[in-house]
Design goal:
The protein has 14 helices and 17 strands. The chain has helices spanning 20-23, 125-134, 147-150, 175-182, 184-198, 212-222, 242-250, 270-282, 311-317, 373-377, 384-392, 396-401, 412-416, 423-447, and strands at residues 28-30, 36-40, 50-51, 58-59, 64-67, 76-77, 82-91, 97-105, 161-165, 202-208, 228-233, 265-269, 288-295, 301-306, 327-330, 337-339, 352-356.
Amino acid sequence: MRTVFNFPGGFHPHEGNGGKAITAGLPIMEAPLPSRVAIPLQQHIGAPCKALVKKGDKVRVGQMIGEPVGAVSAAIHASVSGTVVDCIPCITANGTQQMSVIIDNDFKDEWVELNPVADPESIDAKTLSELARTMGIVGMGGATFPTAVKVSVPADKKVDTLILNGAECEPYLSADHRLMVEYAEEIVKGARLIQKTLGIERVLIGIEKNKPDAIAAMQEVCKNYPGFETVGLKVKYPQGGEKQLVYALTGRRVRVGKLPLDEGAIVINVGTCYALFRAVYEGRPVVDRVVTVGGNVAKPANYLVRIGAPVEWLLDTSDGILPDTRLLIYGGPMMGMAISRQDIPITKGCSGIVALETVSSLAKESPCIRCGRCVEACPMLLSPATIDRYTRKDMYEQAEQAGVMNCIECGVCSYSCPAKRNLTQSCKVSKRIITQRRKIEAAKKGDQ
């Protein structure tokens, strides 16, 4: 039996309203098509796509409507057939406006011609990367890093381990859980493509032990694939963090400022592997994804939903939120974003919509009592309270020296703080300002 390592910090967050226990047993249902979609041209880390359509154009499902620009990008495709209403900025979950393609659905659901790869076993790394780019495949666990870049391994890097992230440690969410139960074979085939093209020796699939049916399903499929192993992990947040997952499965520590690649590993979400399988074996670009609607809603569910559908429509499909709901979260309650409006579109990185009745984070902040709970809980061995003090005093150089750039923004510090300090938010602010200053300095040096 493989040794599983226990990363420092972390905890198992409490889940109200049944949490995962309700949606984990609910099969994925194909959601009804929305009458209109708003599809942002940037649903990934990197450069936004260039619009390929204009007002009045007719489009079909799977048609590329956003062309990837730059080295770090991924194509965007129409999720319904119909008429382009406009290309205008629309509000997204993070509060910013992104240029989006608005399409009125004609409900004919007419697809472009799909072209699966004729011989998937013969595909090489360069072809796989280009396919991921043009099919719009990104990190479906929420990070949205373009998969094309992740599978383009530099010649000076040696990768011996591919890690499939099936931890899904966020409370309430069960999208990945259901994918593993219902599409285990497809996920493993998607991972096999990466393993073969990159010449990776072993594939480790990490799943928290609170998903025994998913573990069983993946283990059964892995019997037919040499080098594949499914590993049950301790139920502990943030078990699904890249650095935490690499350590848990291999014992290797990803150093400050480094990536799993520097330790000989690549981490891919199980949903991303499923998307890769569909792209290669079915010729399907990313036009939909599985989204958990959970918490304080009338009818919790796991939906296969078209990209660009509004949150309001998805909630209506679940018969709406309950009257005592106090907060709506886009994503999971730990790393997701609170939203105050429901016309926000579902994007590739949205794994859930969670309604909460009781929200401790709404409590008023009080002074830090120096209890050290945030330090004890931090999986990156930081002192969030210290970083918080520096940030509030605009002492960003000191915050950087305290290691803020190594923060993974998991939210455990804010959750564990008895004074209800917005510690995670302070880390985010510092990271953003430090990054902006670095860009300014780099631009100045480039002008000299």
